[in-house]
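Much of what follows relies on a compact textual record of a protein's fold. With that in mind, consider the following protein and its fold in C-alpha cell form.
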Amino acid sequence: MLKKRVIPCLDVKDGCVVKGVRFQNLRQLDEPGSLAEKYMEEGADELVFLDISASSERRTTQMEWVRAVADRIFIPFTVGGGIDSVKTAKEIISLGADKISLNTRALEDPNLIRECALLLGNQAVVLAVDAKMTGEGRWEAYAGGGTVPTGRNAIEWIEEGCSLGAGEVLLTSIDRDGTDSGYDLKLIEAARNAVSVPIIASGGAGKLQHFVEALKAGADAVLAASVFHFGIYNIAEAKDALAEAGFPIRRTW
C-alpha cells in the first residue's frame, strides 16, 4: 500500500510566503527557502509552492525563489503559478523542481496539460483545481488564484484534465481555505469517484482529525498551510495521527 503524504503548502507573493483566509487578507510570513528547509527537517514528504499572484498579474513564475528553494532542500517539490507554456514548465523542472502545477493557463488552454505531460511525463504534471461550492454536490472551478469564476464544473474539469495527461490533482476548497473547519469531504469523495490518479486534499485543515478524515474520504495526501506556518501542529504530529488511524506513512524520526 502506498504511503500517505503530508505536504506543507507555501503560497508565494512578491518573493515571500503569505497566508490568508479564502484567498483573501494575506499575511506575510518568511522567505520560501527558509520555510522549505524547516519543513524538510521536520519530515515533510513533499512541498508545494504556488506563486499566487502570477496568473492575475499575467506574468510567469519568478524563477529566483524556485532556484533558492532547490538549493536548500532535497525532498520533492512542486511549483505552480504563472506556468503559461511548455518552455516555462521545462525551465522550472531544470531548476530542480520535481513537478509543475497547472491551473489558470490550463483552463484557458487545456492542451497545455497534454504538451507538458508529453515532455515531462504524467507524474510531473499536477492539475491544481480551486473549487467553490455552487450547490449540493456541485462545485465550480475558479482561475486567477481563486478569484475568477470560470463556469466550469470542477469535477468534470478534473476528469478532462486527467484524460489529457495530468498525473495528480491538487484539489483546494475555496470555501474551506484558511478556515480551520476541515476539508470539504464531499468534494474529495466526488473527485475520488471521478478519477484514479492521486489526489492531494487542500483547504480547511485545523485539527489532526481533519487529516484523517481527508484520507478516509479518498485523498492520497493532505496539504496544509496555516496549522504548520503558525505552529499549531508540526509534521510529526500530523503523521502520528495518520499512523494511529491505520494509514501507512513515511517516518523520519
Q: What stands out?
A: Residues 22-27 have pLDDT under 50 and may be disordered. The chain is about 35% helix and 30% strand.
